[in-house]
Design goal:
With 85 residues, the chain is mainly alpha-helical. It contains three helices and no strands. The chain has a domain of 39 residues. The chain is 36% helix and 0% strand.
Amino acid sequence: MTNGDPKCTFTSRPRDADTWIRSPGPTPSKNGAKSHHFTARLTIDVTPDLRGRIKVAAFRRGITVAEMLRDLLSREFPPNPRGTA
């Protein structure tokens, strides 16, 4: 095992939430995905039934699940005009 910088480990995080939230996102995907437009990935656990309902709703609207959930989250959590989280 190599001896790397002890301050920067696989599980290290910034000391405060603001620094952690505002840290740069991952680089764009090499497979052409749209990850350069959205720099963070969020994973949640839902029941299979709820997942199915979400997928059906997105299909009926003619959009992807990701687009639908981004819109929903943007409406629920609008940007703060003062620039704080």
